[in-house]
Specification:
Elements lengths: L8 H12 L4 H10 L4 H20 L16 E4 L2 E9 L3 E6 L4 H12 L3 E2 L1 E4 L4 E4 L6 E4 L6 H14 L10 E5 L5 E4 L10 H5 L5 E8 L5 E2 L2 E3 L4 E3 L6 E5 L11 E3 L2 E3 L2 E9 L5
Antiparallel strand pairs: 1-2, 2-3, 3-14, 4-7, 5-6, 7-8, 8-17, 9-15, 10-14, 10-17, 11-16, 12-13, 12-15
The protein binds pyridine-2,4-dicarboxylic acid (PD2) and zinc ion.
Amino acid sequence: MSGPQVVTPELRQWIVDQAAAGHSVPSVLEAMKASGWEENVALAALEDTLAAEVARTQLAHKAVPEVVGEPGVSTVWAHDKWVKVLVKIKRPRIVVFGDFLSEQECEGLKAEASVRLARSETVQTATGGSEVNEARTSQGMFFQRGESELCQRIEARIAALVNWPVENGEGIQVLRYAPGAEYKAHYDYFDPSQPGTAAILRRGGQRVGTLVMYLNTPEQGGATVFPDVDIDVHAVQGNAVFFAYGIPSPTTLTLHGGAPVLKGEKWVATKWMRENRFE
Ligand code: PD2
Ligand code: ZN
């Protein structure tokens, strides 16, 4: 191309369509560069367009779980414990917590879960069922909500921390990744365009937030990664990462995955929050 490159409404619409189809920001950038766009022009067009699209769709955003606490204060009281706020990101909404679980709580969850671990399945939105999937090579299990004293205590802490009712939470899920295991990038909300989603949503509505709690510190690898924004949250025992998504759309930039565990194993507990009571 010669002369200044002009970002047309058609290009903006194309960018929105790519994001809506689930293509990551880096992959759209690569496609634009491959068709002749200068990197800095392409990047600015991408950022402007997606920011405007997020602002436009903000009106459609549902209320989401939100971390309470004084602005700029790095500890927050959550039910029975002071929790550290280590990192806060606005877009996507991500908060990293320190000291969310004690070592004893991490060990307790692992012990309660380990006798029930089985190869993890992923929700199959095509049918509303679940299936074993190569994208998710961990072992996992679900607790019932409030199943043990430990689950109840952690659930009450989560509810206080992110200001979201215990009743809207799914039961805690525990995952164990052996060396080499990973969880490829995905969104935690249910894809509205899939035929099985309507059945899933009847119980509690959409997922609107996720808290991933680290039950151990893998020797190497196993970060929770957010490819759209190039953020890696390292797995450190007792820490947790929270992210929220007010609409079930890639424009929330909440694409995330569990990077392969390179050495040692990785244990996490995940709490998903629904928009309504989950019974
Ligand atoms: O284990 C993780 O880091 C991870 C990554 C992505 C967990 C989940 N998603 C999840 O449980 O949804
Ligand atoms: Zn996830």
